[in-house]
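Minutes, methods subgroup
Present: GH (chair), OT, SY

1. OT presented the first of two proteins processed in the latest run. Sequence and structure tokens recorded below as shown on screen.
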Amino acid sequence: MFRKQMLATLAALMTSTAATADETEVTVWSWFVQSTMEKPIAAFEEKYPDIKVKYTYYNYSPEYITALKAAAASDSLPDVIGLQPGSLTQQYREHLTSVNDMAAAEWGADWADNIFPVNRRQVLMGNPEGDEGYYIVPQESQVLCIWYNRKIFDTLGLSAPQTYDDLKAAATALTEGGYIPMFQGAADGWQNENVFLMLANQFSAGITDKAQAGEVPWTSPGLVSAMNAWKGLFDDGIFQQGALGAHAYPTGAQLLAQGKVGMMALGSWWMQESKFPPPLSEYVENMDGFDFFYMPPVPGSTQPSPPVGGIDIGYGLTKNGAENESAWTFLTELTNGVGLQQALNDLNDLPAFKGHEPQGEVSDHVKQMYARFMEDLPNAENQRFAIPAIAEALDNALAGVAAGELNAEDALASVQAATDKALGQ
């Protein structure tokens, strides 16, 4: 009897070991919300039961950036990594695999035509001349905007600002009412860049693209006006006191969701708050209390900010991941398959590929906002920077001007110097 039990136990162990050996694991790192990523992974593993996905979530700044740098230095990057186009992708390009041939085999030779125009431009941003490699597959798109709390605005007798005077008046009323006027996480370079791009494109659509390509100087009048307008948002009390030490995530976004902030520069991705489970959804259920507008004309401008955006997040196949066939399978489903659909159902953001939309329960108000974003996405101006050194120089310039340590002209001259060096001019 004992011998039979031993044999049965051994057989079960061998069967379990064999099953484990047949399974493959895909490792993924990103700042993509944990609760949302679990749904694409579940859908993927249901479709591919022999593939298991191990996901590691990081807050984007500074945890994710720090983790990527350390892993790249030790050649221990996971199979798939979340990326923004341009400077972040270029920092890790030597560790990534061009997916052109794999994507063409998966989706057809014209697969890139199904990506929204601004996304197609961004995928190749920063590649060396002659390099047409796609090192990032976009998953989601975004459009930048100013979110505002409709309930607070109604209580104070305010409406979405149409002019800069409206914006200042709203900020004053919010502050006097005990609210944070417009929360700016000015300790985060990415949020400062986003606001500056809103401002710069008021003066000349696409001007920052031309400046980073060396086609117009960073010290041109439009960009100087945009930098002065950036300083004005601090001086005129539109941004909150202490903005230079504040972070957009988690601090600002949480305060906005809790009804303590009147306005905040974020983007279409913030619709996802309506899908978070309790208690996170307590303040943002169906997003009925929130809406968005584009930055009204600032001093010197005659038009509001155009839509600015592009790829919210994409994913790269690392050279480590290229040795794991299952990694590419997961990446395709995450960006343009069952995984993407689950993310869209969570309203995580807008699709990067045409032909997708959220399914399931979505309130009429969110549907209306979603439709407005999707209408603007095909015409969005580029949000990204191709060369890390230029983005870093602009971050430093924005911080210096905000702190009163630099004037607009000198700050932009430093960005021009960094651009000249990066372009070899």
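2. SY then presented the second protein from the same run.
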Amino acid sequence: MALTRRAALGALLAAPALSRAQAQARLLVIGGGFGGATAARFARTHYPDLEVTLVEPQARFVTCPYGNLLLAGTRQIGDITFTYDGLRAAGVRMVQDWAEGIDAAAKRVRLRGGATLGYDKLILSPGIALRYGALPGYDEAAAQVFPHAWVPEDGSQILLLRRQLEAMEDGGVVGLSIPDNPFRCPPGPYERISMIAAYLKRHKPRSKVLALDAKDAFSKQGLFQDGWKQLYGAMVEWVPASRDGKVARVDPGAKVFETEFGERHRVDVGNVIPPQSAARIVIEAGLAPAGWAEVDPRSFASKLAPDIHIIGDANSGAPMPKSGFVANNTAKQAVASAAAALRGEPPPEGVYFNTCYSHVGEGYGISIVGIYRPGPDGFVEVPGSGGVSPRGDLPEQRRLEALYADAWYASITRDMFG
């Protein structure tokens, strides 16, 4: 697998420079997260003839990965916050503003501040939108009572959830409402359950976690449940959809989660992860009529606008998960494909990877791996390529995977931000 990764990356890096006639072609990137920051830095590093502009409203980026560790108290907000100084140093032009609209025909993007930016190729990586109202009772005001902590922005939501945990009396109930697929970071809610339980075990041991789920199965399920049983005993209760786990309505005032069949669960702290879609700008540009953008699996060019490459969580991408690792490595394929198109050439052959680590407890990590290729009708998983951590009483395996997770996080954020 390592040789395959190196060969695939080598194909990207070996792409020839743009011709003199195409020098200073304009690559515009919207969104400075795992996809967008990677795309901008990769473009400047490997295609120096491109003029690269990144539009991102936040001055700093707070990562979703490792955000759950703030809830356990093993990380602080500064540990998961990054500036764009490294991208500026690489020659990326940074524009701190919101992208408000796209005119695909004219190849222009309108900014909230009133300016417009032209492009020859657009890399669109704006992430997700939370579908406020899709879950009755849950709107932006409700998020101040039941934080989602799922769109990082300035980190205020994850910090709000942490403060609520700290203020809760011992013996309280922490409720989670988990949506049906698809959503950002499939293992994320279950790592969150683990990290909340880790905090409660140390500081509020009479408390419990009640996780109400709109699904009957989830990523790394056996591994998570083994860890919960071993580390937290009866502190964690996970309720699947088949046992009336799907939350149908929330009442922030009464602090109640109401399930499909009318059971009302009162919680002391509530974390609602609502249904999601591609970010608003993708929807309003007409690039995601079904909620997620459909793209060419070889180049990530929109099927509706070929000069717009849509990467990260905003595209459909299945069976690839919506993960930071996928956003990072597919961003490079999108940039290489955009550069190839500017030369009048086909995109390079694509191989896409996902590795997702999750923390279950202190010194206790698990992982899942997948390898994907373009197929005739979309993305396909390479048969026999993936896998998960082995189950069983394997303390050294769990310890090492927690260390590998830390190394992965350090490596990917360095790749993004320099």
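Chair's summary of item 2: The mean pLDDT is 94.
Next meeting: continue with the remaining queue.
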